[in-house]
Specification:
By secondary structure, the protein is an all-alpha fold. The chain has one domain. The chain contains 3 helices and no strands. α2 (48-79) runs antiparallel to α3. The longest helix is centred in the middle third of the chain and has 32 residues, at 48-79. The protein is elongated and about 65 Å long. Residues 10-76 form the DUF202 domain. This is DUF202 domain-containing protein.
C-alpha cells in the first residue's frame, strides 16, 4: 500500500491542541501580570509590583510566540514525514517562570520583614 499524500489528520489536530495549550498558558501568565499590577501595588519595594507584572506579561508573550513557532516547525515536520524537531521553548518558559517566582519570593520576604 503506497503512503498517503497527506499526513494523518490526528497528528495535525493534536499539534493544534498543543498550540492552544501554549496560548492558554500565555494568556494565564498575562492575566497574572495584570492581577499583580492591579491587586499588589506594593511588593516589598515601590517598583516590585510593576517589575513582576511586566515579567509575567513578557513571559506570557514569549509562551504564545514560542508555542506558535513550535507548532509551525512541528507542522512542517509532520507534512514532510520527518521526526519532530526538538524545542527550547519549554525549558525557556520554565526558566522564565522560575525566575519570576524567585523575584516574587524575595519581594514578599522583603515585605514581610519590613511589615
Amino acid at each position: 500500500m503506497p503512503p498517503a499524500d497527506h499526513p494523518d489528520y490526528r497528528f495535525t489536530l493534536a499539534n493544534e491542541r498543543t498550540l492552544l495549550a501554549w496560548l492558554r498558558t500565555g494568556l494565564a501568565l498575562v492575566a497574572g501580570g495584570v492581577a499583580v499590577a492591579e491587586f499588589a501595588p506594593d511588593l516589598g519595594v515601590p517598583w516590585g509590583s510593576a517589575a513582576v507584572a511586566v515579567a509575567l506579561v513578557l513571559t506570557g508573550l514569549g509562551a504564545a510566540v514560542g508555542g506558535y513557532v513550535r507548532w509551525r516547525r512541528n507542522e512542517q515536520a509532520i507534512t514532510a514525514d520527518r521526526p519532530l524537531p526538538s524545542s527550547r521553548v519549554l525549558p525557556a518558559l520554565v526558566a522564565a517562570v522560575a525566575a519570576v517566582l524567585v523575584v516574587v519570593a524575595v519581594l514578599v520576604g522583603v515585605e514581610v520583614l519590613r511589615g
